[in-house]
From TrEMBL:
This is C3H1-type domain-containing protein. It comes from the Eukaryota. Residues 368-396, 430-457 form the C3H1-type domain. It comes from Penicillium canariense. Keywords: Metal-binding, Zinc, Zinc-finger.
């Protein structure tokens, strides 16, 4: 019998054994891998279990801390009332009643605000009320006297005394004369309390003007903040603030504040003739005078709106004795044939300097700056410190150079800003680097001009004759 078939069968069995052994090895390897994966998953599960337990404990701690913080935040709640006395005026019966009227006005306003809070912010319970009214007391007293409320302006002090004595957190603050002083104080105080967690509401009362409109428009862009602010409306808002009514709560207290502006009654103001004339000071030359104990400087008297022109004249410095801090520059009426001088203003009543700074070559501008020319001599025709001025008076300027020198003078801010009514003022009333509608210039916070002097509308719609 042939052995070959048996050999072939033997080989087939050997191949099957090899396949069987390979299968067993593969199965053992797979089991090993699965056991390793299982151990890793087991470790991960135990780690996640510990992590979740730690997170739960941490969450409980955080919730406890939040509860404690909320309890702290709810302590001593208060609201702030910031009023500009130029736009928010107490009713006549309060003002005329002197100290008693001041006390009654404070009590009535306090009660009115509490009533408003109960209706609009019921979650704020028993808040303290901090009231600050910023007012040019002397100017307001004169305004009341012109309107016939007082026999003399000083009577306003009785009302203020009564108001300030009534409550610990309520006061009328005398800010003195000056443009936008109340606005600046209100804005700074506003920023202090806006993010204070204990302050639940800020009441802002102000006149309708362009500066307040810009400020409140900026705040209204953050919807999370507008709910913390209520606008107090006394005299109905004009176009500057009327468009912001949809962004804020509006609070009206007609039982406390006037709803109409004061009407002047000059003929019935016996104190008018006794008032001294108001003197307006403009910047003086920057150089000091070594041979004078007190350097003479330039000043201007105030001007009234009229159809007649005015001319500038200056007194010469007193070289023999001590000179006053400011020299007096008087304005006298010219003949009736002289053309009236004018101040151009935009629709907001802001002064507009008709000067295109972009049209002036930068090289020419820098060249004239280096010459240290006297602005008073070349632009006003006479320097009040002629004998002691260290700036150049002798150079002959072309018409174009005079135009450029005018632009250089405009780079120095006028202290009366956009409300300056001096037709011969050589200083700047708006930032020359700012474009209409843009609230900043490339200089940012380092700009010498106030923020309100930026983005001025340069379209002239009215002219004030001086």
């Amino acid at each position: 019998m042939d052995s070959l078939p048996f050999l072939e069968r033997y080989r087939q069995l050997g191949t099957l054994d090899q396949q069987k052994n390979q299968l067993i090895e593969d199965l053992l390897k797979r089991v090993t891998d699965l056991e390793a994966s299982f151990q890793q998953e087991k470790l991960d599960h135990e780690r996640e279990t510990r992590f979740n337990r730690d997170i739960q404990l941490h969450e409980m701690e955080l919730m406890q801390q939040i509860s404690q913080i909320k309890t702290i935040m709810d302590r001593e709640p208060f609201v702030v009332v910031l009023l500009d006395g130029e736009g928010i005026i107490f009713k006549d019966e309060f003002l005329q009643a002197g100290e008693e009227g001041g006390r009654n006005a404070a009590d009535q306003l306090y009660a009115a605000i509490h009533s408003y809070l109960r209706s609009n912010l019921p979650s704020v319970t028993t808040p303290k009320i901090m009231m600050k009214i910023y007012l040019n007391v002397r100017g307001f007293g004169e305004q009341c006297a012109r309107s016939g409320l007082f026999a003399e302006p000083g009577a306003i002090h009785d009302f203020i005394r009564g108001f300030n004595e009534t409550m610990s957190f309520s006061e009328i603050v005398d800010i003195g004369p000056g443009k936008n002083k109340a606005q600046h104080k209100i804005q700074e105080t506003f920023q202090v309390f806006l993010y204070n967690c204990h302050c639940h509401q800020i009441f802002v009362g102000c006149p309708s003007n362009f500066e307040y409109a810009l400020f409140l428009e900026d705040v209204s862009k953050d919807n999370d903040l507008t709910g913390r602010i209520s606008l107090v409306e006394g005299v109905p808002f004009e176009k500057e603030l009327d468009g912001l009514k949809g962004s804020y709560r509006i609070a009206r207290f007609p039982e406390v504040f006037r709803s109409a502006k004061m009407a002047p009654a000059w003929a019935t103001a016996p104190w008018k003739s006794a008032l001294p004339s108001r003197t307006l000071m403009t910047p003086s030359p920057s150089r000091q005078f070594s041979n004078l104990s007190n350097p003479p400087t330039l000043s201007r008297t105030s001007t009234n709106t009229s159809a007649s022109g005015v001319a500038l004249s200056a007194t010469t410095p007193n070289l023999n004795g001590g000179s006053p801090d400011f020299q007096q520059v008087s304005r006298s009426k010219t003949s009736g044939s002289a053309a009236p001088k004018t101040v151009e203003r935009n629709k907001y009543g802001q002064r507009v300097d008709r000067l295109d700074f972009k049209s002036i070559p930068r090289d020419d501008l820098n060249r004239l700056k280096k010459l240290k020319l006297c602005n008073y001599h070349f632009l006003l025709g006479e320097c009040p410190n002629e004998e002691n001025c260290y700036h150049d008076h002798d150079r002959k300027l072309t018409k174009q150079e005079l135009h450029i020198l005018t632009a250089i003078a405009r780079m120095t801010p006028c202290r009366f800003g956009l409300e300056c009514d001096d037709p011969e003022c050589i200083y700047g009333h708006r930032c020359p680097q700012s474009e209409p509608g843009k609230k900043t210039c490339f200089r940012g916070d380092s700009c010498r001009f106030e923020p309100v002097a930026h983005g001025i509308d340069t379209n002239i719609v009215k002219v004030t004759k001086i």
